[in-house]
Amino acid sequence: MKKNTPIDLKSIARDVMVKYGFLPEFSPSVINEVKGIVNKPIDSHPNDIRDLRTLLWSSIDNYDSMDLDQIEYCEPGKNDIIHVKIAIADVDFFVNRDSQADRHAAHNGTSVYTGIETFPMLPDPLSKGVSSLLPGSDHLAMVIEYTVLPDGNFEPGDIYRALVTNRAKLIYEEIGDWLEGKTNIPESVRAVAGLKEQIELQNTAALRLKQHRREQGALDLGTLEANAIISEGVVLDLVVQEQNLARCLIEEFMVAANGTTVAFLNKAGMPMVQRIVRTPKNWEGIRMTAAQLREKLPRAPDTRALAKFLIKRRQADPERFPDLSLTIVKLMGPGEYVPLIPGEPPVGHFALAVTDYTHGTAPNRRYVDLIIQRIIKSVLDNRKNPYTNTELQELTTWLTGREKGSKKVERFMQKAAAAVLLQNRIGQLFEGLVTGASEKGTYVRIISPPVEGRVVQGCRGLYVGQKVRVRLLRTDPYQGYIDFDCTGKVQG
Q1: Which CATH number applies to 425-489: 2.40.50.140, 3.40.50.300, 1.10.10.10, 3.30.70.100?
Q2: Using one digit for the tens of pLDDT, what is the confidence trace for 278-295?
Q3: Contact 236, 320 (CB under 8 A)
Q4: How far apart are CA 443 and CA 436, in angstroms?
Q5: What pTM did the predictor assign?
Q6: Are 73 and 198 in contact (CB under 8 A)?
Q7: For 429, which of 90, 103, 225, 399 is 20 to 30 Å away at the CA?
């Protein structure tokens, strides 16, 4: 790659979207339809809606997120219990089934976040406008209630329509640093009376939930997600997204909310979509990975034993833990969507250590969540399920494929952005860790910037986890290639 060659990453992103069967643009029919939708008055909702606008709702998300799907609120109860309310954007109110916008959303199945350009599942006037729970106006929502017990278990509660108002749009990094004692209280929290105590209560509830799930065997995985920092089309850096207490808070709240949704629909005897990660067929591969680190796992799949192993390895070798996590994820197999028909046993989610799980908390970003929202409404309105069992089977198969496709797009664009970042550093030396060594090829992740590429020279005798020194040979953003020559091993 010649130095200073201008690379149009947005064009590459659109080409990759098409390659994997996605529609990168909204058709004129979708755009015209949405122009009418955005003016739909929210007072045309059913009469059974609850007015919860006085509650101290808030959201926590990325600094640049505008497609807010959920806001949260907690209040203390007797005997040290905590009542939690999660308000989910009522996207179905604006997006009717089989409308032009709905058909586009069903085809893509998900928003695709390439780091270069976001390809939303729904047009911005919806997902970043009327169907987003942004501060400054009243919004329709589906509220999910549950109670967090002192031991960290939770009791599912009710689900109903409500009118809500977001009081504060908070940022993961700011809230995480504050909750972890790294910084003082953020101005975004200080500016709203009572919000400090509200977020602290939410954090208490989340920590209880996390500890309980860990005891049940939830896996503590930590793969690297490097986001491109771009200014005026130039890739300036790659920054790893760090897990913190704020991200943990939202993750735990959503796991419990999705579990509550399954309980609600099960009680109604309603077919639905379940989100599963099957018990690993390649458990022996996971055992062998542990054995290479002088750890022993039982012969039969055991999520508690695997969870303890991962916690121990994170503490013992944090530098190599992201690569170990990725290996375990690959050996476990991907998540899937499958129908859950009343009377049939649920498959469960091995990684989360939960039996009953779905995706219903992000209807602006995932089509499965919009399906779940419509099924919930059918229960509330005493109507039959809007989806037949056959339709659910077809949709879950399609949407599982769409999710896999979106991950391929996102991974390709991470490689493309990294290739652009490194294109003027050909010949330079880097330290890295071997992340893969098989007949398919040998791969290394350099430490800074956090980029993975293929070792095309000097790869003989390398093994996963080994520290090495590599020279950058070539980059190709259009193919997503980053090639290295291994020049030696590094002690330590």
Answers
A1: 2.40.50.140
A2: 888 789 989 988 998 999
A3: no
A4: 5
A5: 0.91
A6: yes
A7: 225
